[in-house]
Design brief:
The protein is mostly helical. The chain contains 13 helices and 2 strands. β1 and β2 form a beta hairpin. α6 packs antiparallel against α7, α6 packs parallel to α8 and α6 packs antiparallel against α10. It binds Phenylacetyl coenzyme A (FAQ). The site of Phenylacetyl coenzyme A has 29 residues, from α2, α6 and α9.
C-alpha cells in the first residue's frame, strides 16, 4: 500500500499541487519540513530581540509605534509557523525545548548586536529584504500550511522592509553624523545578511532533496544573487556604499559579481560562537521560565471550562 501512497505523493508534487496535513507523506519529507519550519519559527521569535533592544530608546513616539508594531508582527509570524509545524505532528512545547537546549537552530543573523539606532533601519532594509527574497518563492512550497503562512508573512515583511528603508533615507537626509552612522551600520550587516541564505550550494546538504520535494524552490546561491542584484540599486538610491570591493556589474552574466562571505564566521555562529548566541538563548529561556505561571493558569482554566456542564 505504501507504494501506491508514494506514487500518489509523487504525482501531487509533479503536478505542482499541495500536500496537506492529512495526506500521506514520506518520513523524510515530514522531518525536513519540521526542521525548516521550526528553524524559521525560532528565527522570528529570537529575531524580536535585536530590534526589541531599541524599543525603550526609539527617538520619537512615531518611531517607537512603528518599531513596536514590527516586533509584534514577528511574534505573530512565529506563531503562524509553530502552528504550521503542529499540522505535521510536532509539539510546540517540544520545539521550544529544542530551541532552548540548542538542538534546533535559528537564523545566524540574529546573533549580531544592534549597536546603534541605525541598525533598526538596516535590519528592516537588509535583513527583511533578504527574508523576503528567500520567502517569496516559499509561497509556492509544496506543503499547503507552510505556503499559506508565507503569503501573509511576506505581505507584512514588505512593510517591514519599507519602514527600514524609509528610516535610513530619513537619516541620510540628516547630519553628517547620521550619514556616518548609517554607513557604519550597513558595513556591519552586509556580510551577515548574505549569510542568511545558507552555505554555498556545493556545501548545502539539504538543497537537492528539498528542491525535488518542492520544499525549497531555489538554491541558496540563486537567492543570494537575486538579493545582491535587488539591493545594489537601492544602496545607490540611499547613497550608501556596500562594503565589498569585488562588487560590480557583469554584463555577460547580466548580474552582479560579488565577494565571498567569510564562511568560517558563519560556521562559528552556527556552532554557537557568534557575538550574541548565549545572550539570545538565555533571554528566550528566561522568558519561557517566567511565563510558566501563564501556561499553568491557561491549562487550569481550559480544564475547568471543559468540566463545566
Ligand atoms: N542560519 O543544507 P542547508 C526572519 C543550516 S528571516 C542558521 O542549505 P536548508 C524574518 C541549515 O538549517 C530568517 N542556520 O539547509 C525576520 C542546515 O542545518 P541542519 C529565517 C543555517 O534548510 C526579519 C545547515 O545549515 N528564515 O526570521 C543558516 O536547505 C527581521 C545546512 O544548510 C528562514 O528560516 C542560517 N543562515 O537551507 C525576523 C527561511 N543557513 O538543520 C525578525 C526558511 C543554513 O541540517 C527580524 N528556511 N543553516 O542542522 C530556508 O529557506 C532554509 O532553511 C535555509 C537553509 C535557506 C535557511
Amino acid at each position: 500500500e505504501t507504494g501506491t501512497l508514494q506514487a500518489l505523493f509523487d504525482e501531487t508534487i509533479a503536478a505542482e499541487q499541495r500536500i496537506e496535513p492529512r495526506d500521506w507523506m514520506p518520513d523524510g519529507y515530514r522531518k525536513t519540513l519540521v526542521r525548516q519550519i521550526a528553524q524559521h519559527a525560532h528565527s522570528e521569535i529570537i529575531g524580536m530581540q535585536p530590534e526589541g533592544d531599541w524599543l525603550t530608546r526609539a527617538p520619537s513616539l512615531r518611531r517607537k509605534a512603528i518599531l513596536l508594531a514590527k516586533v509584534q508582527d514577528e511574534a505573530g509570524h512565529g506563531l503562524y509557523l509553530y502552528s504550521a509545524a503542529e499540522t505535521l505532528g510536532a509539539d510546540r512545547a517540544d520545539l521550544t525545548a529544542k530551541l532552548i537546549d540548542g538542538t534546533q537552530k535559528y537564523s545566524s543573523i540574529f546573533n549580531y548586536p544592534t549597536r546603534t539606532y541605525a541598525d533598526v533601519g538596516t535590519i528592516g532594509w537588509l535583513v527583511d529584504g533578504a527574508a523576503i527574497c528567500n520567502q517569496v518563492p516559499l509561497c509556492r512550497s509544496s506543503f499547503g500550511p507552510y505556503a499559506r503562512a508565507m503569503i501573509r508573512v511576506c505581505k507584512e515583511e514588505s512593510f517591514h522592509q519599507r519602514q527600514g528603508y524609509e528610516l535610513l533615507a530619513t537619516m541620510m537626509r540628516g547630519t553628517d553624523e547620521q550619514r556616518a552612522m548609517v554607513q557604519e551600520s550597513v558595513d556591519r550587516w552586509w556580510w551577515p545578511a548574505l549569510m542568511m541564505f545558507g552555505p554555498p550550494d556545493d556545501e548545502s546538504p539539504n538543497t537537492e532533496q528539498s528542491m525535488r520535494w518542492g520544499i525549497k524552490r531555489n538554491t541558496n546561491d540563486e537567492l543570494r544573487q537575486r538579493f545582491v542584484d535587488m539591493t545594489v540599486p537601492q544602496a545607490e538610491a540611499l547613497g550608501v556604499t556596500l562594503p565589498d570591493p569585488a562588487l560590480r556589474w557583469n554584463d555577460r552574466r547580466g548580474a552582479h559579481d560579488f565577494g565571498e562571505p567569510d564562511w568560517s564566521e558563519f560556521k562559528a555562529v552556527l556552532r554557537g560562537d557568534g557575538p550574541c548566541n548565549a545572550e539570545r538563548v538565555a533571554n528566550r529561556r528566561a522568558a519561557h521560565e517566567d511565563g510558566a505561571w501563564v501556561r499553568a493558569a491557561a491549562t487550569a482554566f481550559a480544564a475547568r471550562e471543559q468540566a463545566a456542564p
